[in-house]
Amino acid sequence: MKWLDQAAYTCARTYAETYCVTVYVGGIRFYKPINIGEVIRVDSQVIYTGNSSIHIMVEVYSRDFSEKQFQKKTHCIIIFVSVDEKGQPQKVKPWIPLTDQEKKLEEYAIKLKALRENIHNEMRPFFNE
Ligand SMILES: CC(C)(COP(=O)(O)OP(=O)(O)OC[C@H]1O[C@@H](n2cnc3c(N)ncnc32)[C@H](O)[C@@H]1OP(=O)(O)O)[C@@H](O)C(=O)NCCC(=O)NCCS
């Protein structure tokens, strides 16, 4: 989990060129276990930006030393907000998807955003914010 956050933060911080804070971690899916001693690869990429938020997709792969191919093991979405020196959200440059894959991932991020809003509304009666 720490590596996911670190990889995603590095990606968001590099993109935003400002300090960023985590606002959301979700959609985490552990497809298969990672065994102790395996080689780990953590990929992160920007898939969507809002006004101040940067949505990062993180994918974790692993392989045994005896294998050449990495296998996908985990996937999640982590959202950061670019903040100023007072900790207030500030505008980020818009992410412009270019490839078909980047366009699909942006659509995926937009769908997830709507789903999160629905979940948030469902949960609203059960917690105070
Ligand atoms: C980040 C923070 C400054 C934002 O303040 P806020 O009053 O919620 O500001 P806003 O409502 O304008 O939201 C800012 C952005 O966060 C997004 N956001 C807020 N809550 C969110 C959530 N639960 N899930 C996804 N995105 C969320 C908003 O959609 C908005 O994105 P946009 O500007 O791209 O439209 C504030 O929430 C905060 O300080 N949170 C604590 C951060 C923290 O301590 N993280 C852990 C350690 S790094």
What does this structure look like?
With 129 residues, the protein is an alpha+beta fold. Helix content is 30%, strand content 35%. It contains two helices and four strands; from the N terminus they run H-E-E-E-E-H. The chain has helices at residues 2-16, 100-123; strands spanning 20-30, 39-49, 53-63, 71-82. The protein has a four-stranded antiparallel β-sheet. Strand 2 (39-49) and strand 3 (53-63) form a beta hairpin. The radius of gyration is 16 Å and the shape is globular. The two termini are 25 Å apart. The mean pLDDT is 95. The structure holds coenzyme A. Coenzyme A is lined by residues 21-24, 50-53, 79, 81, 83, 87, 89, 116.
What is the strand arrangement across the widest sheet?
1-4-3-2
Question: β content, as a range?
Answer: 25-35%
Task: Give me the count of strands.
Answer: 4
The overall pLDDT average reads 95
Instruction: Give the distinct bound molecules.
Output: coenzyme A
Element order, helices and strands? HEEEEH
What Rg do the Cα atoms give? 16 Å
Q: Helical percent range?
A: 25-40%
Structural class: alpha+beta
Largest sheet entry: 4 strands, antiparallel
What's the structural blueprint in terms of helices and strands?
Elements: H1 2-16, E1 20-30, E2 39-49, E3 53-63, E4 71-82, H2 100-123
Antiparallel strand pairs: 1-4, 2-3, 3-4
